[in-house]
Write a structure and sequence with these properties.
By secondary structure, the protein is of the alpha/beta class. It is built from eight helices and 13 strands. β1 and β2 form a beta hairpin. The termini are far apart.
Length: 289
């Protein structure tokens, strides 16, 4: 069974039940055609009105963060933007599309850049035809523009993400033995064994509460948000003022002067992420700037 699809189905049922209780969300849906495929950009607005920030969910398979986000939307109002692009019966992190029989794939959190060299790094797909490649880049940029059109009116951006939280291990597949590195976590922002990572090079400060799992943390672009979250003793990373340009929304937000906060939690940890968003709502309410 595809567990992510199972959880997304439960989430859909959850929303229907909430709507039946008189808290119907308003849905605005835009779409971008990518070759033979389509990506839908969905913006949900709460009948409770605006609350000063927009919840942003770009990885379709990160269903725990989406459910936690909807719960916040229904409790405190505001808006939430999410993407739908996978075939029926599945939810996928990356977006795939086909142009003239060439299959392309990209991470939707690596498309927020006008630098085609950056976009080329995230866009996989082999084609010797320059025109096909250029067409692929153009529709990816178009998708980024449609997403940004929905979120740019908001001064505060809250990104919703989930991570695997798996240790380094040796994996056996048939006769093949491969080493799988430790997955992304708060540890990614700490220099290890005298070697810096791309994540650590983009961080200026890190606070770690040792009683909180390494999968649960915030990433912020404002020193004031870093201090406020640290005072509440929650693990947090402050992105530095010269982050590596990688097409991510956090780097784009910093360049645009947007107040950006990323909420990271392990896949399936809905209650943990909901608690994080409750804490974050307090921070945003108590510290308006």
């Amino acid at each position: 069974m595809n567990l992510n699809f199972f959880f997304s189905t439960l989430l859909a049922a959850f929303l229907i039940n909430i709507s039946a209780n008189g808290q119907a969300l308003q849905l605005k849906e835009s779409y971008v055609v990518l070759g033979n495929d389509t990506v839908f950009v969905q913006k949900y607005d709460s009948p409770l009105g605006a609350n000063g920030y927009c919840l942003i969910h770009v990885h379709e398979n990160e269903t725990a963060s989406l459910e936690a986000g909807f719960r916040m939307l229904l409790k405190y109002g505001g808006s939430l933007v999410t993407l739908r692009h996978s075939p029926p019966g599945s939810v996928n992190r990356n977006i795939q599309f086909t142009i003239q029989k060439t299959l392309f794939e990209f991470d939707p959190n690596r498309i927020f850049s006008k630098d085609t060299a950056i976009l080329n790094k995230t866009l996989s797909g082999k084609s010797n035809d320059v025109a096909i490649r250029d067409s692929a880049l153009a529709v990816v940029q178009q998708l980024a523009d449609v997403i940004l059109k929905e979120i740019e009116p908001f001064p505060n951006w809250v990104a919703l993400h989930n991570n695997k939280n798996t240790p380094a291990k040796w994996a056996v597949s048939g006769k093949e033995v491969e080493f799988e590195a430790e997955s992304y976590s708060i540890v990614s922002y700490i220099k290890k064994f005298d070697e810096a990572s791309e994540s650590s090079l983009s961080a200026s400060d890190v606070y770690v509460n040792p009683v909180i799992n390494n999968s649960e943390f915030f990433i912020v672009t404002s020193p004031m948000d870093f201090d406020a979250i640290q005072q509440k003793r929650f693990t947090v990373v402050l992105q530095n003022d010269k982050p590596i340009e990688d097409g991510s929304l956090s780097v784009f937000a910093y360049g645009k002067g947007k107040r950006y906060i990323n909420s990271e939690a392990k896949h399936g940890k809905v209650e943990e992420q909901y608690g994080m968003l409750e804490l974050l709502h307090q921070v945003l309410t108590e510290n308006k700037f």
